[in-house]
Amino acid sequence: MAKNLLGVLVQTGKAIERDRKRRERESARDYATAVRNLEKARKAEEKAVLMMKKAGLAELKSREKARALAYTEKMKAIADEQNSELTAIYEDIDGLLEHTLGIDDFVDLESLRRTNDFDPKELGTPLPTPKLDPLPPEPIFEAPPKPKGIFGRKKKLALATAEAQEAFDNAHSTWQSEVNKIQLSYEKRQREHAALERDRIQKLGEAQLAFEREVSEHNEYLDQFINNLGYGTVEAIEEYVSIVVSNSVYPEHFLVNHTFNYEPSTAELRMRVVIPEPSRITNIKAYKYQKSSDEIVSTTLSNKAQKDRYNGAVHQVAIRTFHEIFEADRRGLIKSISLEVGTEAPLPSTGNLDFIPFVAAAAEREAFMEYDLSSIVVIETLKHLGAAISKNPFDLIGVDSNGVRRS
Question: Domain total for the chain?
Answer without folding.
Answer: 2
